[in-house]
Amino acid sequence: MGLLLLPAAVLGQQATTHATDSVQALPAVHIQVERPNRFATGTRIITLDSAALAPYRTGMLSEALAARTPLYLKNYGPGQLSTITMRGTSAQHTAVLWNGFNIMLPTLGQNDFALLPVSGATQIDIQPGPTSGLYGSGAVGGSILLSSPVRWGAGFTAAGQADAGSFGLRAGNLEGGFSDERVAVRTSATYRHATNDFPFDLPGGGRPRQTNAAFWQGSLAQDVTWRLGQQGQLQAAAWLTDSDRQIQPAIGTQNDHARQRDQSRRLLLGYERVTNRHESAVRVAWFEDILNYSTDAFRSDSRVRTTQAQASHTLRFGPVTSLRVGAEAQHFAVQMSDYGRDLAENRFAGYALLRYDPWPTLHLSGTLRQALLPGRRPPLTPVLGAEWQFRESATNKWLLKASAARGYRAPTLNERYYQPGGDPNLLPESSFGYEGGLRHEWTGLEQLSLTLHSEVTGYQQLVDNWVMWWPKPGQNFVSPRNLRQVRTYGLEATSELKWRTTAYSVSGRVAYGYTRAYKTRDELTTATLSGRQLVYTPQHTGAATLDGTWNKWQAGSSFTLTGFRYVEDEGNNFLPSYGLLDARLGYTWRMLRSSLALTVLAQGRNLTNQSYQNYLYRAMPPRSAQLSVRVAWH
Q1: What rounded mean pLDDT belongs to the chain?
Q2: What are the pLDDT digits (tens) for 480-503?
Q3: What is the pLDDT of residues 423-454, one digit of tens each?
Q4: Rounded Cα distance, 326 and 313, in Å
Q5: Cα(361)–Cα(378) distance, integer angstroms
Q6: CA pair distance 92, 140, nearest whole angstrom
Q7: Residue 489 region, left (φ>0) first, then alpha (ψ -120 to 50), else beta?
Q8: HSE (side-chain half, CA atoms, 13 Å) at 596
Q9: Sequence-distant (≥ 6) Cβ neighbours of residue 205 within 8 angstroms
């Protein structure tokens, strides 16, 4: 959406490691970009940059998020459906945006993270909490922002990688780019294939091999950015993905040879103009998503074409105040065999974003968004945030933060029109949440380049009109109904230590999440309000990573912990807790005056050989290995 646009004249200032080159090349441009997080003060943002994503260049977003964050991803198997839960909400309560455009399927209302290649973006920002005021429908539990910040003046770069691993894994990646001070181009192509014939343990004994779980995936990402003079920028991007996968049967069930084909085409074009006081942006995007599913006895085909347009204007009232106003429109055209007819729908939204910094140590922001849906009016979604740096010394910085926000989720097209069962009169889900936290930054002895960043956040949220699929009285099929009210609260804590010298670097990070989620109202007369945790919502999650380099060597490890999860609303059935340990070791040879690098990287997954299930009766692989060879030129 409009607030995510990054103007041309200052894209080089996005990362401190690249700011110097862009400012020296364009000395006349010193405009401070109004980046998205400037309008989201008081909220928590987790960033995975290109260095954190490097071990997953040929992988999927589900792998990177599961290994590098304490987020819980409900995974049906390697290469299978993978959905996310944030702060106790459902998979439909997390918005995913690519370069500012929501890529959530309007039919399902959720994203499959096993279909999103890491190579489609070079940076991932995770923003937990209700952020519908910033990003629109679905941002109730949180948002995930995929972007590829431009690195101006980098010259030519190219790289190729080939992977081979356990259970028939074969993968590869080719990428290249060029940028001077006027144009930047990035291209990345990835393929991935596996037979997934891994052995697994049966509950009653036995160790068969998995069947009907093979997949093939391919993707192509293309980004082009032109600077037009000192004030304008033109951006074009494309992201094409294709997946053909067998659907892994549940343990103990008959193989019905289920198969699914997913194809996505995403295109965007945008223009931005920046002056000392004004910033204007107009962008359009076109998506096409195809999903074809079949078994021995059933077939469902769908095709969704989405057209989106965004426009925004930012006005700076001096150095302390910025106001951005914008509007966006969406058009969905759906061909779905389970609807019985073709459908088309239009949605609109307008918003205003305000940033006010009365003092250098105090930052305030406010957001207001109103969406227009056919037949229904979702709630007005304001967001208020504040950050106060209340103490600073030569080595320490302490910052308090707080925010409060409303969120909403528009009913999906499946919930409204699926036959049988769809209900066109469903109400939008709405939520209200708030959070508060403390951030601490410590810088040790300058000659040691030692830093420690820690943050703790507490939150609470109430979600109303929660949609559940349940039979209505007299029906023999399920229907979506506004049945529940759900309360979530919890605690998130992270701490990261970095130590860098000329010969080596070490980075360690630990993260923990405590999540309590339970229903406070249920319209079903048979339902009980026991306060029990929602299904597939672990109370405890954690992640720890350790990365290091020494001369030509690199090494790293990650450990993730997932607490037990109930698998039904009532009863005692649950999946036990499990922990997964991964590690990697690599060596790089540099040639041609260090412009050419050859890297060999060995990775091990599930090194303790855990036998576990992430989703009930879906087998997960045991210990596995992967070997990568990468050639990079700069």
Answers
A1: 91
A2: 999 999 999 999 999 999 998 888
A3: 999 999 999 999 999 999 999 766 678 999 99
A4: 6
A5: 36
A6: 9
A7: beta
A8: 3
A9: none
Q: CB-based contacts of 52: which residues, under 8 Å, 6+ apart?
A: 64, 68
> Is residue 387 within a helix (H) or strand (E), and if so which, with residue range?
strand 381-392
Q: Give Dmax (Cα) for the chain.
A: 77
Helix (H, G, I), strand (E, B) or coil at 58: coil
Euclidean distance between CA atoms 464 and 469, whole angstroms = 15
Under 8 Å between Cβ of 78 and 620: yes
Please report the DSSP string for 337-373 in residue order.
Answer: TTTSS-EEEEEEEEEEEEEEEEETTEEEEEEEEEEEB
Token pair for 622: 């045991």
**Per-residue model confidence as pLDDT tens digits over 568-618:** 988 889 999 999 999 999 999 999 888 999 999 999 999 999 999 999 999
Distance CA 59, CA 66 (A): 12
> Cis omega before residue 420 (within 30°)?
yes
Which letter does DSSP use for residue 376 in this model?
B
Q: Which of 265, 287, 271 is nearest to 225 (CA)?
A: 271
**From the centroid of its chain, how far is CA 99?**
12
Strand partners of residue 630: 161, 599
297: left (phi over 0), alpha (psi -120 to 50) or beta: alpha
Give the N- to C-terminal CA distance of the chain in Å, as an integer. Answer: 33
Contact criterion met (CB below 8 Å) for 492 and 472: no
446 DSSP assignment: G
Residue 298, judged by CB atoms within 10 A of its CB (0-12, 13-18, 19+), counts as: exposed
Residue 45 CB partners (closer than 8 Å, separation 6+):
37, 125, 126, 127
